[in-house]
Design brief:
Blueprint (H helix, E strand, L loop, with lengths): L1 H17 L5 E2 L12 E5 L4 H17 L4 E7 L6 H4 L5 E5 L3 H14 L3 E4 L6 H10 L2 E5 L9 E3 L9 H5 L23 H11 L6 E6 L11 H14 L3 E6 L5 H11 L2 E2 L6 H8 L4 E5 L2 H8 L4 E6 L15 E6 L9 H15 L10
Parallel strand pairs: 1-7, 2-3, 2-5, 3-4, 5-6, 6-7, 8-9, 8-11, 9-10, 11-12, 12-13
Helix pairs in contact: 2-11, 7-10, 8-9, 8-12
Length: about 375
Amino acid sequence: MWLKSLELLSRRLLMCATHHRNTVRVTSPTSLFEPTSKVLILRHDKIGDAIITLPLLRILRMHYPAMQIDILLSQHNASMSARLKQYTNHCWVYEKSPLKILALLRALRREDYDVILDPMDNASTTSSLIIQLLRCKAIGIEKSNAHVYTYLVPMLERNSVHIIERIAQTLLPFGINPKQESLELEYPLEKSLLRQAQQNLGEKTAPYRFGINISAGDRWRYWGRENFIDFIKQFKARHHDAEIILFSAPSEADEAHAIAEAVAIKAAPAVPSLDEFAAMLVQCDLLLTPDTSVVHIAAAWKVPQVVLYSRAPGLPMVWLPYHAPHRALETSSDFVSAISVESALHAAEALWQECIPKIFCPTHA
């Protein structure tokens, strides 16, 4: 039975490959949908992508309280469903299994959505196939797969406009002007989570807490054990007013403990959920992290951060902390480890002086 379903899916994919829509360009706020329309938003990628989509969801829900807003996540960012539920009716999860894909497509077709909203500003083969297989109207940013969309919104300058502002253009077909809306990030955390985080980290051993996140999901984003050790040693020597704590994903807890032991600092305990991890992160007064979802969680809480990026020449601007104090360090190398300890120290020192208030010392009065 499932082989027959796969055959039918293959035929549809072939038909989709040659099907082009008549697209309409929407360059200003234009109300094209009813207040009770059914919308499916595609966000089947990573945690950071889901976090930066929260402002879009919040604005859409505020303008359309009766609209059915569903979102399609992936196995990689399904943990964000708890944060998204305040603005969505249902969270679907895309899993890369033929049988599960078929079941998902059937369920999505039964919903009979009025429109699919694809906020990605990179062309996604998966998004294109979902849109064409569901055979309903679709909104997308103008890019190489523009033919799959019914309504196209402008691609803003990728080297100067933040990704949050770029994807907010997809609100135009709902009659919403993103320039008149607050696009601030959010990552709300319950008080109980924050209290538990304080207990997990213990009392501060210094006036300020400097968090260092070593995890980034990809090996090319790992700064390197020696870089972290060298950085921490030098920063500790300069700042006795800072308690340094290492953060990592549970899968990299051993690496975090190895670094922590080498420089005699504390590693934050491994926790089972993203929210528990986030609640500990936001206890920090300053962060150092590679480019990962941590950047956007911290930005939502306005935690100052030094962020390590790898960007090959010609690629769009990196996803900076939105409207939050930061220093961004970039390398054109394929590996973040090419960023020097000296440049990271300089950035951390500058941000420290800018954001951390001086401690009053009576002996120097």
